[in-house]
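Trying the structure run again after the queue cleared.
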Amino acid sequence: MKKNKKKFNPFADLKKEKLSVENSEKVLESTALKFIRNSDWISAEKIYRKLVQNNSNNYIVYANLAAVLQKRNIESEVEELLKRAIYLNPDFGDAYSNLGCFYHSKKRFSDAIRFYDKALKILPNHPQANFSIGNAYRDIGKIDMALIHLNKAILYKNDYFDAHLNLSKLLIKKGKIIESLSHLKKIVEAKNINPNLVLNAGKVYLELELFDDAVSLFSDLVKNNINKVKAKIELISAKKQICCWDNYEIECREIKQFCKSQENSDNNTFMYFEDNQEIQFQLAKSYANKRFKNIKDDFKFYKKSLNKRKIKIGYISSDFRDHPVTKLVFRIIQLHDSDKFEVNAYSLFDEIEDEYTNYVKEGANNFVNLSYKSDDEIVDIIRADELDIAIDLMGYSKNSRPNIFAKRIAPVQISYLGFPGTTGSKFIDYIIADEILIPKKDQKFFSEKVIYLNQSALCCDDRLIFLEKENAREKYNLPKNGFIFACFNNNLKICPKIFKIWMQILEAVDNSFLVLYASNENSKKNLIKEAESQNIAKERLLFAEYLPINEHIKRHSQCDLFLDTLNFSAGATAVFSLLSGTPILTCNGNAFYSRMSASLLSGIDLDELIMDSPESYKKRAIDLAKNKSKYKLIKDKLMHNLSSKKYFNSEIFTRELEDKLKNLLI
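Done. Tokens:
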């Protein structure tokens, strides 16, 4: 016979004893605190709920129940419980601070700051309240106020390492690097510290391009088996940024394994190691299912007639500045037919504003800065504009805000340009592509329906086309004579396999050189070392610094052939290469992100530069460099196509895009 499982009842023993209500409450409160210390949130909640039902007058009960519910991710009652605690004790500073934290988590910044202020009036030396209000000021862009309060937090609690970390990040924005490093040092030298803080300190070192320090930190975490998956991913990515390829094959296998781990929340790193569309889809889908499962789409809309009204489009981005995506798309925003379309641009990140920000402002009917708004506020603001179509220019890239699309801000939501793959989500309806980027057979690896353009889906500003042929190599510190190969791709895209091929090409072609983008000094040293190990003199590797886009294209025009990377191909850099009149040689990959150069070459009728294997890629590069007549045919064809106005025409691109968008609403 089955024994009945004894139900939890903290009140059973109390009923046996004749205790006063006051004493019984104290016993229950003590019991609840024991459960809290043992992280038994469910048992603690049951006791506190009973006390609340009995109309307890102890403000601590309401504050602790709020805290327990937050631990259990049950937030619907938290606000009212904390307000009740404050009502019972208007001088309860912690409750004001906790209510501020609650509002802060909802990105209700003004409410958060208001309650943090109230907490500090009661407890001016409160480290947590100073830390929290400092973060809130940071989140609304008031950096100086943020620094004041974060400094107070460490004044009152010197080992407040979260405050040291945030101070280090903010001091970088103020250009105070030495001070920033002093705060990082506190974290690195601390003992028994939260490993996530050490991991994040390593990321700050990366931001400062102190790669040796970052690699050392991540290596220690991995060696000590602390936060191993995240630390290993950061370690391998950091090493890839500086082209440090010792143990590359092992690390390549590990990164693929770790990217599939349940612990991993990084949806992008995998792309730099393998071009596999099916796996990218699986990773994106897993990420989307985890991140957005609790977000409800409560958007209600009614189909509106297009008769005698403009179609309302919204471009949403965190990159409306000197950024590859904006360099490509701003001209399209400017060229939309103002008689047929109303274009809004919504900026989600305004720490940097420059000439490209102004180009977008000039092109859009309305430019709305939502950088310091909560997700809910952004959703409400954009919904109120009654867009027909929202175009996400970010996907899962840095500073993206996918939650706003998960809540839904328009009847039609489209992914374009900023993320070269599927989002794996249910809330992005379409992705803009062409049949090179997404062959029909690969549609099954995209959660979005595909809007196919009849040209390359990578847009551009055709006013950048540069057709002059003068030799200006000396101006850009390039060899006056010889064949110049180039690759201006991010160092993350370079792998040992493609670099070995490049060195074999240089070895086969006398008086040839390779120009690479010098993103950091460590990568330069490592690439030179790697070249010399393959018997290529360091003088044949040239490193180009950043230049404004017009100057970069003029410099680019002095190169003879752009050599693309494997796995993750050139995107914006490929556009600028072709606009400069420099042909690109590429391998057609197996995923959206490894086919971008192929898409552009096909779009400008240069399919003969799309190779089907690394071996044919190498042979073709050598052949073009050695055979002047073959190279001239390719070069002349590119220059002719650029001058014909038929290819890379921003006006033609915009009109086709508009037709495709309009068809979605019919």
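Residues 10-21 have pLDDT under 50 and may be disordered. Worth checking whether this holds up in the mutant runs.
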